[in-house]
Amino acid sequence: MCEKSESEELSESLIEDASPRRGFLKFLGLFSGIVAMLPASIAQAKKIALPLAKIKALAEVGGQKLLKVKGKEILFVRDSETSVASLNPICTHKKCQVAFKPETGLLFCKCHKSAYDIKKGTVLDGPAPRPLEIYPTTLKNGKIIVDLPNT
Ligand code: FES
User: Would you place residue 32 in the very low, low, confident or very high pLDDT band (cuts 50, 70, 90)?
Assistant: First the structure.
């Protein structure tokens, strides 16, 4: 049996839609019918912004926090003074939950000891067959901006 930590649901009021596509889609909405013809990948892509100051666990380098954002569990890791990483925390081997080990700078799964690179999600050790899903994330003006994959 794999171990999992409880994720905390992030209040909807703290989540901003930071997608530049939103304004574009509104513009296209003026021409009825065009939005309906867009590929689903464009219409459903989500860019969200979260206030770093409200997530205390990420105040210091090495901190991490598992949050549920828009129904999706995301592990946030403060991997440097100027960056935050975000990823799907489910190990690609047998679906245990991974955690960041600040002393190594790597993500680890304690079930069968797979290790992953924090930046690319690539497998560095253990039986994991595939990389972790890392979401493009930037830290700008006190906000964590995450490009969530299409669902
Ligand atoms: S479940 Fe993660 S290494 Fe096996």
Answer: very low
